[in-house]
Every structure is written in C-alpha cells, then in structure tokens.
C-alpha cells in the first residue's frame, strides 16, 4: 500500500506533469505564465526592468500585452541614438536579448495603469576597459506600438559610485518632458526626438515564405472551373485591424505637430502624409 503522503501528493503533481507533457508534444507552446505580483526583473547590479504606476493623467495602456521576446529584441536592436555626433545602436545585441526576455514577462504582467521603466548598464565599445554607461527609458504598449521614451542614452555614473558609493536619482523619460536625446529606428514614428512608437505587427515567416501552390494539370480541370482561373490562386489581402489604424492616426498627428512647430517643411509634411495615407 502506498504511503499516505504519496497518495496526497499525486493529485498535486498531475498539473505539473500535464504542463511538461504539453511542452514536450508542442515545442512552440510557452507554459510559463506571467506572475501578476512580480514588479522587478533584476538582470545585474545596475540593470533592471520595473513595473511602475503610469504617469498621472495619461490614458490607459494596452496592458497586459503578449509580445514575444523575438519581436521585442528586434525592436530594441533597431533603435539608434545619436552619441557624440554619430548614430550608434542604443543597445548592444546581447543586452537587447536579455532586456527583451524580461520585457516579455513584464508586459504580460503589467496593468493598463502601469508603465515599465528600465535601467541597463553595460561596458560599451567592445573592450573590457571601456566605461560602463547606462541607458534609462520608459516603455509601454499602446495602439499596437511599443512606445520607448529615453531619458539617458549614455549615463556615466559608475566612477562616482566607485569613489563614494553615491548613486544618481535615475530618471526614465516622460510623456510630458522631453530631453536632448535623439532616436530613430526604421519603420518607427518619432513622437518626439527622444520618443519612438515602434510598430509591433509582424508578418509570420511561414506566410511570407510559403511556396505558391502547384496548379493541377490542365487536362484534369473541367472547362470553366475555378481552379483553371489564374486569379483563383491569389489569396485575399488581410484586412488591417483597429490597432493598425490607431497607429497611423498617431503617426499623422505626430507629423502635423512637427510641421506646426516648423521642424519639417510643408513639402516634407505633404510627402510623408501621402505615404502614410497610401497604407490605409
């Protein structure tokens, strides 16, 4: 006869065993659920992602958001910042990968009334003697886009900390107060020089790379059948969702703001406006 403790423990193990079996049979399935009570993902002494209350008076974010690590890593890796007069990747490749993993979990746990803030400190330049410099930023998902507001693209604080253990008061970026940071990323919208809205919609690789179906021999087709028409093999284009239209609306508003503040010419405004309208 089995021991009493073994009998009591068996029902508790069944859900765990089921998850293990599901993961083995379905490799693409993620069985790790977001921890709604977790508020910090600490990756190193001065590298972390935190859930914090959103800024006062702002509209609700699109949280919780299911955004994969791969999509987030690609988005972060595409961001360029102007450092010492040159366009430089805001994040190192390994840095972006580590942050993307933490952000995936944090976005899945975040509430509509919360933002994410990050501090990421790395030796930048590829040499072990290079100084450790930090990036500070605020992130949130809204209208199908990853919003990234950077306060510091390169914050030098480690020398002071090493000397007297004094840390600065880290600032993470704000919707209401811009900084001198200059960002850009292909396909992203600059809502401000330090604020990017990066579209998160992606086309599945399987759809993009799927081979065209092989047509049946003409001898096997009945005259006038749908398969004999070359147009029948062309799939209908997918309809954009509401998030897509919300993002284009946001881009148009930002473009108008740039023109109204004389940051771009009327000709540039009309050119970019027409390019956006053609996507609708």
Helix content: 25-40%
Question: What would the average pLDDT be, to the nearest integer?
Answer: 78
Which strand order do you get reading across the main beta sheet?
1-2-5-6-7-10-9
- DSSP strand content: 15-25%
How many strands?
Answer: 10
Order of helices and strands: HEEHEEHEEEHEEEHHH
Q: Could you say which structural class the secondary elements and strand pairing correspond to? A: alpha+beta
Radius of gyration, CA atoms, in whole angstroms: 25 Å
Distance N to C terminus? 70 Å
What about the largest sheet?
7 strands, antiparallel
Helix count from the secondary structure assignment = 7
Large-scale geometry? globular
Give start-end ranges of low-pLDDT stretches: 1-32, 202-213, 218-235
What would the keywords be for this entry?
alpha+beta; 7 helices; 3-stranded antiparallel sheet; 7-stranded antiparallel sheet; disordered N terminus; globular; 280 residues
Written overview of the protein:
The chain has 280 residues and is an alpha+beta fold. Helices cover 32% and strands 22% of the residues. The chain contains seven helices and ten strands. The chain has helices spanning 4-25, 69-77, 93-109, 158-164, 205-209, 242-260, 266-277, and strands spanning 40-44, 47-53, 80-83, 86-89, 114-123, 132-142, 145-155, 183-184, 189-192, 195-199. Strands 1-2-5-6-7-10-9 form a seven-stranded antiparallel beta sheet, sandwiched between helices. The chain has a three-stranded antiparallel beta sheet with strand order 4-3-8, with no helix packed on it. A hairpin with a 2-residue loop joins strand 3 (80-83) and strand 4 (86-89). Helix 2 (69-77) crosses helix 3 and helix 6 packs antiparallel against helix 7.
């Amino acid at each position: 006869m089995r021991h009493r403790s073994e009998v009591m423990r068996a029902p508790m193990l069944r859900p765990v065993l089921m998850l293990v079996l599901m993961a083995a049979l379905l490799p693409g399935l993620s069985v790790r659920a977001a921890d709604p009570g977790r508020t910090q993902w600490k990756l190193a002494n001065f590298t972390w992602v935190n859930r914090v209350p959103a800024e006062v008076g702002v509209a609700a974010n699109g949280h919780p958001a299911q955004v994969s690590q791969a999509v987030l890593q690609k988005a972060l890796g595409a961001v360029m910042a102007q450092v010492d007069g040159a366009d430089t990747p805001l994040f190192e490749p390994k840095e972006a990968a580590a942050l993307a993993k933490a952000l995936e979990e944090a976005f899945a746990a975040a509430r509509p009334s919360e933002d994410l803030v990050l501090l990421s400190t790395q030796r930048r330049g590829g040499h072990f003697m290079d100084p450790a410099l930090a990036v500070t930023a605020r992130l949130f998902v809204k209208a199908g886009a990853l919003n990234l507001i950077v306060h510091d693209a390169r914050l030098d604080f480690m020398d002071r900390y090493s000397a007297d253990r004094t840390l600065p008061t880290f600032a993470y970026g704000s919707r209401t107060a811009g900084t001198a940071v200059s960002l850009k990323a292909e396909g992203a919208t600059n809502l401000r020089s330090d604020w990017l809205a990066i579209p998160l919609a992606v086309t599945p690789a399987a759809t993009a790379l799927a081979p065209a179906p092989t047509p049946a021999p003409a001898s096997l087709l009945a005259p006038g059948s749908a398969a004999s028409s070359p147009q029948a093999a062309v799939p209908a284009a997918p309809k954009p969702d509401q998030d897509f239209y919300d993002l284009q609306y946001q881009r148009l508003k930002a473009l108008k703001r740039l023109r109204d503040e004389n940051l771009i010419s009327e000709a540039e405004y009309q050119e970019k406006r027409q390019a956006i309208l053609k996507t609708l």
